[in-house]
Design goal:
Number of strands: 10
Helix content: 25-40%
Radius of gyration: 19 Å
Low-confidence stretches: 1-25
Number of helices: 5
Structural class: alpha+beta
Strand order of the largest sheet: 1-9-8-4-5-6-2-3
Distance between the termini: 41 Å
CATH class: Alpha Beta
Strand content: 15-25%
Order of helices and strands: HEEEEHEHEHEEEHE
């Protein structure tokens, strides 16, 4: 009887484990100091974009965002402002939509094109087709920011987290986490706050 119970328990563990693996990609992701691998994703102009395309870049602001999350929408103007401020300094924004468009139709490729045109996005807006990239980074929310520093040893993760401390009002922001991180990186200084908790919608798988 004990043997049968043991076999039954093992079967339950196996079945549950198989279910959890099939329910969506495992999200592990990068830590501060890790080297981020490059990617090649489709942009809203129908071209492909990779980090290696930016020969003169000093770093990148990889921002996982989307059309439909209220938090992401609240940050759109601030993301545009980040690109305007830091792209001339060698740290462009690269936005990636990680959502499954079959689950979230408002985040399909055509909707991405339309939203980018409406808002006047000045940066690439890429579709994580097949949802292969966001698990590598460990993105969990939209928006979720990863600051990379381009070095001879690769693109090093320097900051992970939120854009700032107030998604509801840009005027009431007290801590500009991303700006502080980029400024410190460009100055060659230590980033005092290297990780924060991303506030936003869960990624739709």
């Amino acid at each position: 009887m004990k043997t049968l119970r043991t076999i039954g328990t093992l079967l339950l563990v196996f079945v549950f484990g198989a279910f959890t693996q099939l329910s969506g990609p495992a999200v592990e992701g990068y830590d501060i100091g890790d080297v981020a691998t490059d990617f090649s994703l489709k942009n809203i102009d129908d071209g492909m974009v990779s980090l290696s395309d930016y020969g003169d870049a000093k770093g990148f602001l990889i921002i996982f965002t989307c059309n439909t999350c209220p938090y992401a929408v609240a940050y759109e103007d601030r993301i545009i402002a980040l690109d305007a401020k830091y792209k001339p300094l060698g740290v462009p924004v690269i936005a990636i939509n990680p959502n499954n468009p079959q689950v979230q139709p408002g985040d399909n490729f055509e909707a991405m094109k339309q939203r980018a045109a409406e808002k006047g996005f000045t940066f690439p807006y890429l579709l994580d087709e097949g949802q292969e990239i966001y698990p590598q980074y460990g993105a969990k929310r939209t928006p979720h920011v990863f600051l990379l520093e381009k070095t001879t040893g690769g693109n090093i993760v320097r900051y992970i987290g939120a854009i700032d401390d107030n998604y509801q009002s840009a005027a009431q922001v007290e801590d500009k986490y991303v700006e502080n991180a980029v400024d410190a990186m460009l100055a060659g200084n230590e980033i005092e706050v290297a990780t924060t908790r991303a506030i936003g919608c869960s990624i739709k798988v």
